[in-house]
Amino acid sequence: MLTSREPFAKYCSKEIFAKIKEYGTVSEMWTNCIKEYADAVAIEDNGEKYTYAKIDEDISYFRTLIKDDSDKKLRVGIYIRNSYDFVKAFLSVVTLGYCAVILPPQLDAATVFGCSMKFMLDKILYAPDMEENLSVLRSQRPDFVTVSTADTANEKTDIVIPDGKDACVIMFTGGTTGRSKGALLSNTAVMQGTVNGCYGVDTVFNQRYILVLPLSHVFGLIRNLMTSLYTGSDLYICRNNKDMFKDIAVFKPTILVLVPALAEMALMLSKKFGRNMLGDSLKYIIAGAAAVSPYLIKEYETELHIKLLQGYGLTESANLVCGNPESLRKPDSVGLLYPNQEVKIVDGELLLKGKNMMDGYIGEDEAGVYTDDGWFRTGDLVRIDDEGFLYITGRIKEIIVLSNGENISPAELEVRFNRPDFIQDSQVFEDVAENGAHILALEVVPRAAIIEKMGLSDPAGYITAELEKINMTLEPYERVQRITVRTSDFERTPSMKIKRYKKC
After folding, report:
1. What is the distance between the alpha carbons of residues 142 and 117, in angstroms, rounded to a whole number?
2. Which H or E run contains 184?
3. Fewest CB within 10 A of the end CB: N or C in the chain?
């Protein structure tokens, strides 16, 4: 049975809910954007403003540089940093009915060449500042077609309306195995993910966004860029995250899309220097890509009067699986399931089918990724409450099997240890004691501002004692045997998730 959008109806007006319509392809969505929002500003970047009509004109010329005289559905690499050039290139490719392959800008020359072969690219679009990293590709494949965003054409090429099942984008993902690979998303999947970003927010059309997340990450591409365009909103591109607060002061966004680590930093600075660090216009922060602390949700709502809404998704699901419009009431939940998905839980693991799901990994063995009857295995352990709200309780690959046979989910224990406001992040892991015995250990990163206000003579001792009280409420086999208070943050992935310690 497919999930419905109706549970989200009560979180906005009937008029807004009626405006949230589904499109089969990005080309159809873009055609409607031009009809509805032609004269509105869509992108602001590097001192320039681009209306929807101006973007449409630019991509109509740029499509001419990309198109192929054959009927082949090309795979076109996009090797461009966050910028208007990225937006122009991406829209040009997908509105030709081609598949955009997003190459993260941090890739070096050898990896760019490797990706061009692995993903069987036909062309690469690049920004002039990335040209040096095409050297290996050009030396190994002198015939390979590369197109600079600085190139121009003298004639326009019309938009192409592909089939919804046609490939739209390939994005890098760690997947359920942790090894980077390319997830293929159809037009239908991308559009479902884009529309899902509209649910649960009472004012989602004609908003003002700032882009600080990488467009090479599905959260940045789908929720930040695509949902912004879909809703006729204005997106300001912050090219350097160090300028985020300066750009916020100038642009005055109404919605921010952030990973929790950035939301944590924004909260800390706002409480230190005042609400204007985030601007007087900000209404919502949409947080994802990692677990969100209930402390953040509470503090944003009660202290700054900003709603922080968390969600859950995967690259393989075109980002969004569910979102929580009631984060304050249910801060431990990642929310209600978005529409047009089939969901089931087997042995605690979330399995998915639906319009938003990928068509598979490119050039990879998919053994274990799908069940025999075609369900995608997320690898996430979950539960759903009687109101339909989803909770993440752990990851299958992170389960620790103790010597007594008990299974421990580190994430489930970390939720407990993260509850005190003075704890920012924690990690439970398997360690080896001096006697060689395998034990559960805990490391925590405290919230420095809160600890400082408490005026403690022995902060580490106080934190350890308070965590030990929580520890004693756990089942005996769940209790950690070593607690360490860190003086620095955990090592993190590019998406700001904590890097897990390897199992002993």
Report:
1. 14
2. strand 181-186
3. N
